[in-house]
Amino acid sequence: LISGIFEVVYRLTGVNISNLHILNITLEPASDGKGATLKIPITAEVNVNLPVLGEIVDLALNLVLQYSVSVETHEETKVSKVVVEECRSDQQSIKLTVLGRRIGLLTEVVDFAINLVNEVLSLV
Q1: Which of 43, 54, 65, 68 could be disulfide-bonded to 86 (CB atoms 3.0-4.6 Å)?
Q2: What residues does the Lipid-binding serum glycoprotein N-terminal domain cover (predicted)?
Q3: Predicted local confidence at residue 25, as pLDDT
């Protein structure tokens, strides 16, 4: 399923995601005591491939997905279920690192784009 999603992303955008790794998953109690926060750290390699220019940059991506979860119990049946209330990424955990460039003329453009993405993500 995930490889199928990555294939669609590649066909639509020219962005290839590979070497995806899920690191140590943690579950922490929520501050309100009514749920928990599930944190999933992820690392991956991202290759940007543009139609005219070809492969221009390889990136290392690090991020932490956070899910707010709780357990709800149906009053009549007393059946409990886990409910995902919110899914987001920890904006301060997102890091893009340049692993390599294919076209020397685009170095400044790539650096600017990476810095811009990192800056925008830090403001969200």
Answers
A1: 68
A2: 5-123
A3: 93
